[in-house]
Amino acid sequence: MNTQSEFRRYLANIDTTSTQQLFTDVLVIGGGIAGLRAVIEAGARCNVILVCKDSLQESNTWNAQGGICSVLGPDDTFQSHISDTLNTGCGLNDTEVVELVIRQGPELLRQLLEWGTEFDVVDGHIDVTIEGGHSHARIAHAHGDSTGRIISESLIEKVRQMQSVRIIENFYVIDLITDDENECIGLVGRNSRTGEQIIWAGSTILASGGAGQLYRETTNPKGATSDGIAMAYRAGAILRDMEFMQFHPTTLYVAGASRALITETLRGEGAVLLDCNGNRFMKDYHPDGELAPRDIVSRAILEQMLATNSTHVYLDVRNFDKTHFTKRFPLISELCDSFDIDVSRDLIPVRPSAHYMIGGVKTDIGAASSIKGLYACGEVSASGLHGANRLGSNSLLEGLVFGRITGASAAESAGNLQARLKHPRIKYKIPHSDRSRLDTIDVRNSLRALMWRNVGIIRKAQPLKEAQEIIRFWQRYVMDKVFDSPEGWQCQNMLTVALLMAQAAERRMESRGVHYRSDFPGTDDVNFAKHIELVRDR
Length: 538
Ligand SMILES: Cc1cc2nc3c(=O)[nH]c(=O)nc-3n(C[C@H](O)[C@H](O)[C@H](O)COP(=O)(O)OP(=O)(O)OC[C@H]3O[C@@H](n4cnc5c(N)ncnc54)[C@H](O)[C@@H]3O)c2cc1C
Hints:
Layout: E1 14-15, E2 20-29, H1 33-43, E3 48-51, H2 60-63, E4 68-69, H3 78-89, H4 95-114, E5 121-122, E6 125-126, E7 128-129, E8 139-140, H5 147-160, E9 165-168, E10 171-178, E11 184-191, E12 195-206, H6 227-235, E13 239-240, E14 245-252, H7 265-268, E15 272-274, H8 294-307, E16 313-316, H9 322-328, H10 330-338, E17 348-357, E18 360-362, E19 374-376, E20 381-382, H11 394-418, E21 427-428, H12 440-454, H13 461-478, H14 486-507, H15 525-528, E22 533-534
Parallel strand pairs: 2-3, 2-12, 3-9, 12-19, 18-20
Antiparallel strand pairs: 1-21, 4-8, 5-6, 7-8, 10-11, 11-12, 13-18, 13-22, 14-17, 15-16, 16-17
Helix pairs in contact: 1-5, 1-11, 3-4, 4-11, 6-14, 9-10, 12-13, 12-14, 13-14
The protein binds flavin-adenine dinucleotide (FAD).
């Protein structure tokens, strides 16, 4: 299906005769858990270049709090983890992928331990906790609520020791380069130190993370601007499940402050939700109360906010022992302290916000995209693990498992592709636009507000159509420009992906998983027990 009439293949001019060029067997875009794990695997077999647009410390992975799940406890089973994942995914999971990811979990977590990840331990075993949707305690955590940072540090350390790996931070990838047969042969990007560069590669791995920044309210750091999804779409890759954005029920709501996530583990360990009148309301929406799946908790909070005419609800952790709380959740403790919220006395104001992009670049069980030479893993991909809803803490696990698979597949195919790489000559020139200059920050803020209003937690045909009209209008004067900084390219990417999300959300005329349509509140298995795929016309 053609989803955009006006289309430009590349966002920047390309001229191989005058641009610096680098060569590698495997190219990895992204330094989160998926990219780093892929680098470790590929780097053991061939030369690798890893690029990321900021420092390696800037990623969703670095910010992950609650933990990574796997079958670790004596009373837990693979079957139980599999059925929890399938139940949460509402009929759209790929069962083969679910089995694969879950069965590899324990081995890959043990490997992380060997590489120095300091998981919290009790009586000599990795300590595990429980979150909504899980029927057993199986979430491993590190330094309390700093799991993502601790895992990242050990992976980064491992990657830095590899002679075969070159890391380039502050390298913004503008576009994937494809040849006449539409095989991916590298990328064009902007190195903040040396300017524009082309990197030719035997195979390329997209591990560029999520899209939370498309929404005004989000837990995601500033880099989650959906670049990878947009560049894969421009290159002709099939995208899948673009309507499925998961909203996290509880982010700190203090006007003016960033929307810091308040981990779900707190509810797993006994925190309760109260409305502004002090009523505990979750049991009115779901028998599992605070431990209901995330989409249900998010919608319940939103409905309760509407019913009580309030901007937020509260998380009550006053029943926690304060010393234990500070030790178990140091980040949240510090955050609350910084706003003078004394958790032993005060309630924590929270509301939902965009958290995890389930959809993305369609991949097969070997992490290959629909474009030869291009692989994808982690949040940028739609591997089929999550279905229509993600079970909490399954995403770090997915990054780890598919990072390893991708690294191995990409290294293997890089060998075959190398003979074919004959330093192609490319000249791509974009016509000059006379349209007026524009303030991309303003467009971006307006887009984020629009997405929150019209393509948010509760959706409906008319607002979804209106969102597409408005985005198309913005696209007319943003997409014809040639920018020379990430700010402009990010704005273009966000407009591209926002439109695709609104289109997919309009097409799914039912409610399933994280996608809720107030005009179609039921699940329609007859017409929609399938994926929605989008690909640009070539
Ligand atoms: C606050 C928060 C808490 C979370 N808690 C948990 C949790 O407890 N458990 C769990 O399982 N999941 C959690 N998640 C989700 C999980 O962290 C992510 O899904 C996962 O880390 C994604 O990993 P990734 O490697 O795919 O992408 P990321 O970690 O986001 O890395 C993306 C990388 O791509 C690079 N990149 C992006 N665009 C470009 C470009 N144009 N050019 C060059 N480089 C680019 C970035 O620089 C970055 O290095 C949480 C997420 C957030 C935001």
